[in-house]
């Protein structure tokens, strides 16, 4: 392909799909423009045009013009528009010209207008790897336009060619370019025009330089701001790193200290290691010895178990015999009492009371006086009822015999009667009555709260029993002086059914104001008949006395106010010990409900009172234990520690041996195991088995110890 074909292919065929990017001397501007074009026209062909700005116009020489030898120059000369006049220069000398077509020149001249005074510049740069083509169009006046074409190539003797195209008349005649003489005036004009052009060019370059300088200054300011921001960021990062390094340094120091401590501990451990090894050796020897001892102990235990089983069989047989003999003795005693002791003569009563000596008198009540004495070698309490009445001797004896058949563990047993003197002989209880203990009379000690709750349960049980009797028996005079206590502080109600043995007139007379507090207000106000609800009212007042030990007058009001203000503890009897507040409140509310003025609002003893009060029996100690703890004034000995259950901290009644070797109360250790525990309560080690063995030897020892007191 020839040079002309190459120019045609490059300059004409691809111009529609090519994006031309003009760049000048400023490399920074060129880079930014080129980057924008690459981003915006990524899918099209990019052609970079370098715009060359000459500093001055070329002058012509007077030598004879030569023919063009460059193929590109020839192509330009042949294909340039016909209205252009072209000057070809080489080394700043004119070497060839091409005249414009006169007809085209006149038409171009007619199209020019004063609006073109400003002129335009167009810079195109085409690079093919080894040659550049620059086209500069500069119009400084309406009558003069110029286009320069510069062709560079290493292969051509023509180093540089410039083409000037003018739309006005030619600057010089055709003959002057072939070496003909020209006038001096023409030369001066040309030089003046060239100087003017150079001045404008320099002014333009100065303005461009100033504009670029301003741009460079703005860029420098922007770069300075960016640098400052980067500097601040670096400074902040440096400070953060310094702080981080400082913390790391502190942590390292702490780790060093810990490391030193660990080293010291390690040295101490290493020093103790020989001692510990020797101790381990000794422990292993001791363990072997203990194993041998355990084996011997197990063999001994097996032999003891055999002996224990044999002795237990003998004990069970002996207990059966004892129970059989006791039953025989009891039956004989009952038969003796019924046959020989039930009927008492008046002379026996006079002898027993030493002719009613005041020293034998132990109390005076609503239904008569009470004396103590001994009849037929039995200590009894003799109650002397009023002599006058509407009952005959046979009626009195019949009613008394009916009452004697009513037997309950918490009722005082009627063991004899004297129809002649209207006297009743009861079993004698040495521990006084409930009023003596609540008021601490005659050196009686105050009762513990567990005693008091158990007494309340026993009174409730006895009342339910007598109310369920056929016919129903109403006490009618239930108060603390009629509640007696035996040696083990078991409570028993006396005077039950006595109102049936006296006349209505004697029964209705009541001179004791203290006793009237325990009587049902319904009976006092309306003179009504005694009912079961009357005993419920009396039971409520007694229950309040057990809680507070205060006088009966006003006790209902005091307890009610204390409950409403949430200060029940302020009215509880502190001498009874630390009351369980939950149970105390429950008993207080129950007592107030029993003391309702309207009998219909009072609870039923069997269906309401008993289900509430009976479960409290479980939190109370047995009477034997409580009596032991309450008789400190009698010089009781200290309880042996091996008699005390490790769980309940009380004297055991049914001791059992567990797999850990310790002895516990049967109910306590069974409750422990049934609740899901498989470890020892004492050692917290896992038990080999959950089997329990009764400790008969310890049980007998506890029984013998209790019998001493």
Automatic annotation (TrEMBL):
EC id: 2.3.2.27
Catalysed reactions, semicolon-separated: S-ubiquitinyl-[E2 ubiquitin-conjugating enzyme]-L-cysteine + [acceptor protein]-L-lysine = [E2 ubiquitin-conjugating enzyme]-L-cysteine + N(6)-ubiquitinyl-[acceptor protein]-L-lysine
MF GO annotations: ATP binding; ubiquitin protein ligase activity
Pathway assigned in UniProt: Protein modification; protein ubiquitination
Enzyme class per UniProt: transferase
Residue intervals of the U-box domain: 638-709
Keyword tags: ATP-binding, Coiled coil, Nucleotide-binding, Transferase, Ubl conjugation pathway
UniProt binding sites for ATP: 383
Annotated signal peptide: none
Protein name (record): RING-type E3 ubiquitin transferase
């Amino acid at each position: 392909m020839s040079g002309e074909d190459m120019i045609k292919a490059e300059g004409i065929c691809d111009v529609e799909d090519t994006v031309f990017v003009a760049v000048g001397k400023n490399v920074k501007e060129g880079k930014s423009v080129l980057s924008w074009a690459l981003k915006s026209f990524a899918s099209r062909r990019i052609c970079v045009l370098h715009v060359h700005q000459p500093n001055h116009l070329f002058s012509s020489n007077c030598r004879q013009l030569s023919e063009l030898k460059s193929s590109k120059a020839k192509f330009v000369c042949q294909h340039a528009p016909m209205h252009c006049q072209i000057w070809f220069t080489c080394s700043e000398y004119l070497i060839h010209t091409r005249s414009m077509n006169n007809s085209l020149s006149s038409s171009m001249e007619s199209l020019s207008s004063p609006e073109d005074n400003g002129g335009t510049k167009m810079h195109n740069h085409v690079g093919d790897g080894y040659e550049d083509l620059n086209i500069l169009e500069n119009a400084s006046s309406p009558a003069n336009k110029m286009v320069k074409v510069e062709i560079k190539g290493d292969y051509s003797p023509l180093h540089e060619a410039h083409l000037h195209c003018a739309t006005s008349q030619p600057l010089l005649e055709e003959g002057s370019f072939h070496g003909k003489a020209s006038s001096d005036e023409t030369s001066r004009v040309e030089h003046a025009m060239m100087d003017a052009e150079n001045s404008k060019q320099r002014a333009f370059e100065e303005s461009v330089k100033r504009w670029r300088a301003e741009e460079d200054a703005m860029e420098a300011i922007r770069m300075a701001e960016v640098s400052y921001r980067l500097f601040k960021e670096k400074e902040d990062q440096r400070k953060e790193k310094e702080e981080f390094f400082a913390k790391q340094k502190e942590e390292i120091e702490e780790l060093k200290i810990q490391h030193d401590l660990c080293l010291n501990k390690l040295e101490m451990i290493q020093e103790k290691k020989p001692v510990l090894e020797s101790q381990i050796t000794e422990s292993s020897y001791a363990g072997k010895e203990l194993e041998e001892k355990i084996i011997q102990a197990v063999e001994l235990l097996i032999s003891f178990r055999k002996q224990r089983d044999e002795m237990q069989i003998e004990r069970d047989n002996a207990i059966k015999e004892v129970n059989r003999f006791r039953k025989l003795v009891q039956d004989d005693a009952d038969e003796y009492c019924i046959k020989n002791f039930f009927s008492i003569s008046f002379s026996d009563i006079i002898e027993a009371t030493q002719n009613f000596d005041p020293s034998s008198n132990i109390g005076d009540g609503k239904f008569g006086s009470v004396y103590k004495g001994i009849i037929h070698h039995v200590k009894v309490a003799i109650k002397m009822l009023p002599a006058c009445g509407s009952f005959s001797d046979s009626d009195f004896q019949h009613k008394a015999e009916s009452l004697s058949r009513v037997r309950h563990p918490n009722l005082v047993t009627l063991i004899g009667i004297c129809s002649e003197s209207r006297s009743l002989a009861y079993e004698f209880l040495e521990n006084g009555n409930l009023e003596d203990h609540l008021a601490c009379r005659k050196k009686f000690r105050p009762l513990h709260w567990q005693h008091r709750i158990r007494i309340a349960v026993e009174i409730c049980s006895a009342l339910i029993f007598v109310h369920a009797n056929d016919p129903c028996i109403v006490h009618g005079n239930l108060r603390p002086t009629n509640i007696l206590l035996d040696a083990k502080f078991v409570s028993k109600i006396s005077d039950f059914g006595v109102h049936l043995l006296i006349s209505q007139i004697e029964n209705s007379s009541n001179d004791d104001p203290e006793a009237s507090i325990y009587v049902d207000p319904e009976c006092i106000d309306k003179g009504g008949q005694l009912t079961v609800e009357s005993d419920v009212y009396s039971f409520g007042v007694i229950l309040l006395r057990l809680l507070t030990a205060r006088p009966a007058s006003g006790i209902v009001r005091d307890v009610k106010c204390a409950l409403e203000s949430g200060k029940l503890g302020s009215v509880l009897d502190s001498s009874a010990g630390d009351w369980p507040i939950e149970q105390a409140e429950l008993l207080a509310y129950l007592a107030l409900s029993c003391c309702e003025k309207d009998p219909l609002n009072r609870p039923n003893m069997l269906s309401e009172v008993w289900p509430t009060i009976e479960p409290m029996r479980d939190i109370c100690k047995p009477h034997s234990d409580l009596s032991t703890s309450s008789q400190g004034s009698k010089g009781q000995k200290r309880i042996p520690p091996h008699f005390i259950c490790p769980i309940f901290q009380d004297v055991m009644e049914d001791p059992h041996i567990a797999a850990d070797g310790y002895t516990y109360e049967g109910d306590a250790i069974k409750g422990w195991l049934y609740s899901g525990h498989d470890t020892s309560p004492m050692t917290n080690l896992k038990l080999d088995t959950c089997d329990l063995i009764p400790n008969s030897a310890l049980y007998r020892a506890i029984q013998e110890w209790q019998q001493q007191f």
